[in-house]
Every structure is written in structure tokens, then in C-alpha cells.
Amino acid sequence: MTHAEFVAGCRAGTLAPRIDPALAARYISARLMLPLVRLPVLGIGVAMALLGWIFSGLALIAIGALLPKLVARSAPQFVIDEALASEARFEEFLASGLLQLE
Q: What is the pLDDT of residues 2-48, one digit of tens each?
């Protein structure tokens, strides 16, 4: 299937692509460099809490802890959006097994 056929099928609703949520979460996490963002956010939150900004620090710690779950939850939709927007990404996702067409 070509990229144009994929886009037309998705837009018409006749094609239901399958995406492995675990692979999608790993791909998006690596692409966003999530560990490099998450650790400083957690560190800043702990520092703020220790310096007296307790509620702000705890809020930042909560954001740092929930960030991977939020990314994992929305990762399949990100993958579909990227596949629709770029032919190179579409072919990459098909080759890696991240995107499967029915």
C-alpha cells in the first residue's frame, strides 16, 4: 500500500491501522528524549520542595512522575499523525512493525 492510499483510507474511515501501544510509547519517548527532560524536572521539584516551595515542588514532582504515562497514553495517535503527514515516517513505521495495516 502506498502512502497516498493510506492517507485516503484513513481519511475516509475505511482503513483501520493497528499500532502497538508499547512500541509507540517507546518510540515517542525516545524521540522526545523524555528521560532527559523528566530527570531535571523531578530534581527541580525536589529542590523547590526542600527550599520551602512545598506545593510548587510537589506539583513539579507530580508532573515529572505523570509525564511518561501521559506520553504513553497518547503515543498511538502521535504515530498515526506522523504517518499521515510524512511518507518517510509511514515507510519507517511499516518497516519497523510499529504500524500494521489490515
A: 888 888 888 888 888 899 899 999 999 888 898 898 999 999 999 99
* DSSP-based three-state secondary structure for 38: helix
Cβ atoms 44, 73 nearer than 8 A: no
Query: What is the number of helices (H) and of strands (E) in the chain?
Result: 5, 2
C-alpha cell at 81: 499523525
Phi and psi for 19 in degrees, rounded to 5?
-130, 130
- How many Å apart are CA 52 and CA 46, to the nearest integer? 10
d(CA 77, CA 52): 39
d(CA 19, CA 96): 11
Q: In this structure, are residues 18 and 100 in contact, taking their beta carbons and an 8 Å threshold?
A: yes
Cα 17 versus chain centre, distance:
17
Helix (H, G, I), strand (E, B) or coil at 16: coil
Q: Is there a contact between 101 and 1 (Cβ–Cβ < 8 Å)?
A: yes
